[in-house]
Every structure is written in C-alpha cells, then in structure tokens.
C-alpha cells in the first residue's frame, strides 16, 4: 500500500510539472506612449505625459526618452520634470507598477505661434521590457482633433476612494488629474453669481439668519446637523446632484450686500476624505465681474478675504480654505469633455431619494456645451457605430448621462460590455467611447479606469 501511495504522489508531481512546461509563455511586456499625438493649447500650462506597460514589472525598470523640440527651447520656454540631461529623459517604472510619467511645463507669459512641437521618442527600456509600436509622441502647441486612442486615468492612491479626479479632453488625447479635496468652493463664471460646494468630498452647508460673519459663533452650531447620512433631508444640505446651477444650497449672490447671509459649511468626509473643522463663510459680489469671499473658523472672531474674478474661459474658479487662495481644478471649459471622480449622488431607500456617495462617477462637461448618449449594443455594436448613426442618437445635456452606469460593483463585477457612449464635444466633434477596465475582476486596477475612443465625425 505504501508503494502505491508513493507512486501516486510521484505521478501527481510529474503531471504538475508537465502542466507547467506546457503553459504558454507570457506575451512581451511592451512600453509605449498612450497616443502618438497630443495637443497643448495656449490656455494649458502643463501636461502629464504617460508611458504605459503591458503589465506591471517585478523590479524597478529604467526607460530613456529622447526629447527633440522644434521652434521652442528647453530651459527657457519649456521644462520637464524630471529634467533632461542633454536631450535625454531618464525615467523609472517602480516595482509593481505598469506606468511611468513626466511633466511638461510651459514658461509663464509664453506667446507661441502654434507651429511649435516637441518630439518624444522612447529610445531604450531595461530588459525584459521591450519598446512598443507607439514609441514616438508629438506634442503640438495647439489644439488637435484626435482620431482616437486609449487612455488610462490616474486616480492616484485609494482604489475605490481614489484621491484624484481626472478630466479628459478627447480631441487632444489629454487627461488632467487634481486632488479631489484640493478645493472647497467653486465660483461660477457664467452670467449668474453662483457658488458651489465640493460634491466630491460630500460638503454640506446651512444658512444662518445673520449677514455679519463676526456675529456667528460656536453657539450657532449647537444642535446643528450637517451630516448627510442616508436621510432624505440630507439632499437639502447639498447642491442639486444633477448639477443644475440654479439649485445651489447658497442661492444666487445678491447685488444687495445685506441680502447675502452667512453659511456654515461642513467640508465633508465623502470618499474617505479626512474630517476637517467646520467653516463659516459669506460671499458678496465684487462689482459686476467677480466675488468676494469672507471666511473663518467657527471660533474665530476675525475673517480672511479672497477676491475671485470671473473668467469666461472656465466654468468655475475655485478657492481653498486650506491655502486661502484660488487653486487650479478643472481645465478651461473648452479643454475637457468628461470627468471621472467620486461624489454625492442619490439612490432610493425604497420610498425616497437619499444622498449616496458613488465611486467611479463619470460626468460630462454639460456647462461647457458637451452632450452625450448611452447606446446599448443590442441596438448597434461599438465597432459598427458610424456617422450614419449620429442622426438617430439621442444626445443629452445631462451631467449623469454616463454616471456610474458604465460599471457593475455587484454580481458580475467589472465594466459593462453591453453599452458604450457617444460624446459630442463643444466644438461639434463626435466620438464613440467604451470602457475597457476599472477593477481587478476585469483586468484593470481600481482607481485607474481605462477606456478607448474613436472619432466618428469631425466638426465641420
């Protein structure tokens, strides 16, 4: 009996070894740019240039990139981070990572003709990684109309509670990441005078019956509830989740200063945002072209002041209580089409709508003129969708056309393959877009969603 057992064990080991020997080798691990061309117009000061690998590396791996500018000079008109040595960039892909990046920055007060370009070329990669086919990238200092590519958005750390929001500009093959908690208030640049809360942190606010910031103290917070919870009443403490600019918690800022009340703001803890102290604010108009923000901690007897001018190139200008100044958040309104982030939306408790924080929200830039539609593959496939389908596509100016509909977090977890999206940008270019991955179950990474898109019709 003992001999039989030994024989069977030996046979099992032999079988396992045979299976290992027959396993197919992994495909080459390639490093390449996300696209072959990227636009950088006059309003954009910097861009993050990404190199993607087919899969993560086990050990840190070096990549070198050659830099060849035309009509623009390194060091005086543009720089890179890290800096070049000669005309060579030395990058490192960290162990366990599948990407690397560098920052391209234009000098301040730089006036260009739009014909300037920089050619980046991956010249080498450390073994066992090989250089892929998209080994060259041309950055043009003007807007382009992309024919399509694949982009992986950098949500940073945090997974389902990723720390970054990412704005994507399809026509320019560009994506911009910003910390979700880097701002507190957004000031509308449109005709009305409106102020928004940071929905990405779950911020909430309530009005006081006072219009003097120094008269609001900690005593005014006694019994005050500013936590959203899963209560229908919580929706009254936040801006309209559909993005309707006429339904902000803070009403239109009056031209009559005395009508503008003090608000107490809970800066929120949504999406794993660390809790911060409550702040009291008051906003008044600064003539006809901007705002004046007054703010202080609840217990402070004096307040700080920040002037926020309107800028028609942007939907909003943003301010941070942490820095006491304006901060850069979303790009110029003509420079982004969709935003991937997390934020407060609504769900049902069976009877009423209640506030609920959704990860992986995708908003369209509806205030900037972008429209979109969801298309089910039972109607037409992604590959088959063409210019002839545009006329029967129901485009909507709805912030949540995409929303969280593109992925499933229960049941079969991953990107939904039964739908794709058609996006018409503000210039009139029409793109079709489908999500490829967003979590380990579909071959991706949570916090770094990947999608591909193709130009269906260029604006005339």
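Q: What amino acid sequence fits the structure above?
A:
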């Amino acid at each position: 009996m003992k001999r039989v057992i030994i024989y069977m064990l030996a046979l099992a080991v032999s079988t396992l070894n045979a299976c290992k020997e027959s396993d197919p080798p992994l495909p080459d691990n390639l490093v390449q740019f996300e696209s072959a061309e990227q636009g950088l117009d006059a309003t954009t000061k910097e861009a993050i240039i990404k190199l993607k690998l087919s899969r993560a590396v086990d050990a840190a791996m070096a990549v070198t990139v050659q830099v060849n500018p035309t009509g623009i000079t390194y060091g005086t008109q543009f720089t890179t981070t890290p800096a070049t040595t000669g005309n060579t960039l030395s990058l490192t892909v960290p162990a366990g990572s599948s990407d690397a990046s560098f920052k391209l920055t234009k000098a301040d007060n730089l006036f260009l003709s739009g014909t300037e370009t920089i050619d980046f070329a991956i010249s080498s990669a450390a073994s066992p990684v090989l250089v892929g086919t998209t080994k060259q990238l041309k950055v043009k200092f003007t807007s382009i109309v992309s024919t399509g590519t694949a982009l992986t958005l950098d949500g940073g750390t945090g997974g389902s509670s990723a720390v970054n929001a990412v704005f994507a500009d399809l026509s320019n093959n560009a994506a911009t990441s910003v910390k979700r908690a880097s701002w507190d208030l957004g000031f509308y640049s449109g005709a009305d005078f409106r102020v928004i809360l940071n929905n990405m942190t779950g911020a909430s606010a309530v009005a006081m019956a006072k219009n003097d910031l120094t008269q609001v103290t900690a005593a005014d917070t006694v019994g005050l509830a500013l936590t959203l919870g899963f209560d229908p009443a919580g929706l009254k403490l936040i801006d309209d989740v559909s993005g309707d600019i006429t339904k902000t918690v803070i009403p239109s800022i009056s031209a009559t200063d005395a009508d503008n009340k003090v608000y107490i703001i809970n800066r929120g803890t949504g999406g794993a945002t660390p809790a911060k102290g409550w702040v009291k604010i008051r906003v008044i108009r600064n003539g006809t072209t901007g705002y004046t923000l007054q703010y202080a901690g609840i217990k402070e007897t004096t307040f700080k002041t920040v002037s926020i001018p309107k800028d028609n190139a942007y939907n909003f200008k943003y301010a941070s209580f942490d820095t006491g100044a304006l901060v850069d958040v979303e790009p110029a309104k003509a420079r982004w089409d969709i935003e991937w982030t997390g934020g407060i939306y609504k769900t049902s408790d069976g009877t009423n709508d209640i506030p609920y924080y959704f990860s992986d929200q995708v908003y369209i830039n509806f205030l900037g003129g972008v429209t979109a539609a969801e298309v089910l593959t039972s109607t037409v496939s992604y590959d088959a969708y063409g210019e002839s389908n545009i006329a029967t596509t129901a485009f909507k100016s709805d912030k949540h056309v995409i929303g969280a509909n593109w992925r499933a977090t229960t049941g079969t977890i991953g990107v939904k393959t039964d739908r794709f999206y058609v996006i018409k940008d503000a210039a009139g270019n029409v793109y079709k877009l489908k999500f490829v991955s967003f979590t380990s179950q579909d071959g991706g990474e949570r916090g770094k969603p990947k999608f591909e898109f193709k130009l269906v019709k260029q604006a005339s």
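Q: And what stands out in the fold?
A: The chain has three domains: 30-144, 184-326, 334-457.
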